[in-house]
Amino acid sequence: MAHLLIVDDEDSIRDVLRQLFEYEGHRVSVAGSGDEALQLVASDPPEVTFLDVKMPGMDGLDALDRLRTLAPGGQVVMISGHGTIDTAVEATRLGAYDFLEKPLDTDRLLVTLRNALRVQGLSQSVAQLRWEVETRHQIVGGSFAIRQVLERIERVAPTDARVLITGENGTGKELVARAIHRLSPRADAEFVEVNCAAIPSELIESELFGHMKGSFTGAVQDRAGKFEQAHEGTLFLDEVGDMSLAAQAKVLRALEEARVTRVGGQKAREVDVRVVSATNKDLADEIEKGTFREDLFYRLNVVPIHLPTLRERREDIPMLVKHFCDDMHARHGFPVRELDVTAVSRLQDLEWPGNVRELRNTVERLLILARGDRITAEDVDLIGAIEQATTGLGAELLSSGTFQEFKERAERAFLVQKLRDHDWNVSETARVLEMPRSNLYKKIDKFGLTREN
């Protein structure tokens, strides 16, 4: 059922259209003037509006212009007993979906409504998809380190300057590249990504510059490369430090000349591309080793952006955890669960060699595997024990016959490790675990824990 709005100064027209659309199962509102219509739209936006052109006071075209501002997602169908081509053209220019002449034909009305609702549904789907993409590629954090990154993104994005993003794996280099593209004048053009580490060295040139049919085995047709695909947009060279020297030379030439030549081709093609690069390597070391061209480095590194590790911005972990939970609930229907302060604190204590990507995976595992509605530090430790078991660090845990036996084995392994970390100092271990010392002694007795020689 859709919400429709009928705007016409003739009572008979409003009544006929209301009866027709209500019979079809829709919710219908009516207005006798443009001003009344604007008030209704402001409080309850319709999916489709049928708007008369000739009305006293504000005419339909003026109302249409204001409606498109108040409810840009809705569709507007203009109706008129004095339709002219000029009026129809002006209505289309102002954003009307269609233009119908009086007397109105019932079949034409219903077909127009059905098509307008289909377009409205597509618009909503596109908006939802855009929201999901924006949410998934959002840079989350309020720490000083991440605020510096965001400030640099805002400064460099409106320009065409090349950017080199550095940082460990999982720190969010692709998110930064997408943010630069999204905030740039090229945002409506393509964002094309190339993972230089994932493409065999013998195919990287074809991938970047394209190839002509028959230029090598398997080249069964002409194919545009990533540079051409990103024309007037942004080309993201991920893991650029893994690119072969031969490909580096061609990339350097493409940047200098703003032209590319396909493999096996003779004709150079002009390209207008903004290049953003990323690497987890120290390119200065690679230059010394002779595996990366110094001249290309200076071409790419016009504006450097270095991403901090998650270990360097632990204060962002609570915000990241909430963001991941909300995102997984909205996009995948994960159950709504909260991580209590002990769970978040435990996550903040971990080292996160995989950075934000590893944290996201851990939050996903917790939402799937934790048994209660509220996730605690105990759940974090238990899921960690499961991960250790599946990676070979504690395979004996998976041989447990019951879940209770598994929990006890996991708890025992955890306590042994914590006691080892603190040289079997029970008082210090209890303090770190935020556990009464008497409880820790009871668990030591329960599990028969003894210090190894």
Protein described:
With 453 residues, the chain is of the alpha/beta class. The radius of gyration is 31 Å and the shape is flat. The protein folds into four domains: 3-134, Rossmann fold; 144-308, Rossmann fold (3-Layer(aba) Sandwich); 311-398, Helicase, Ruva Protein, domain 3, CATH 1.10.8.60; 400-453, Homeodomain-like (Arc Repressor Mutant, subunit A), CATH 1.10.10.60. Residues 129-135 have low confidence and may be disordered. The protein contains 19 helices and 16 strands. The strands form five sheets. The chain has a five-stranded parallel β-sheet, sandwiched between helices. A five-stranded parallel β-sheet has the order 7-10-13-6-14. A two-stranded antiparallel ribbon has the order 8-9. Strand 4, helix 4 and strand 5 (98-101) form a beta-alpha-beta unit. Helix 2 (34-43) packs parallel to helix 3 (60-70). The protein is 50% helix and 14% strand. The longest helix has 31 residues, at 106-136. The chain has helices spanning 11-23, 34-43, 60-70, 85-93, 106-136, 144-156, 173-182, 204-209, 226-229, 245-257, 283-289, 294-300, 317-332, 341-349, 355-369, 377-390, 403-421, 426-432, 437-447, and strands at 3-7, 27-31, 48-52, 75-80, 98-101, 163-166, 191-195, 210-211, 223-224, 234-238, 259-261, 268-270, 274-279, 303-306, 338-339, 374-375.
DSSP helix fraction: 40-55%
User: What would the CATH topology of the largest domain be?
Assistant: Rossmann fold
**How does the overall form come out from the CA principal axes?**
flat
Could you say which structural class the secondary elements and strand pairing correspond to?
alpha/beta
Query: How is the main sheet built?
Result: 5 strands, parallel
Strand percent estimate = 5-15%
The end-to-end span amounts to: 75 Å
Radius of gyration: 31 Å
Biggest sheet strand line-up: 2-1-3-4-5
CATH class of the largest domain, anyone?
Answer: Alpha Beta
Supply the CATH superfamily name of the largest domain.
P-loop containing nucleotide triphosphate hydrolases
The number of distinct structural domains comes to 4
Number of helices: 19
β-strand number: 16
The CATH architecture of the largest domain would be 3-Layer(aba) Sandwich
Mean pLDDT: 85
Weakly predicted, low-confidence segments: 129-135
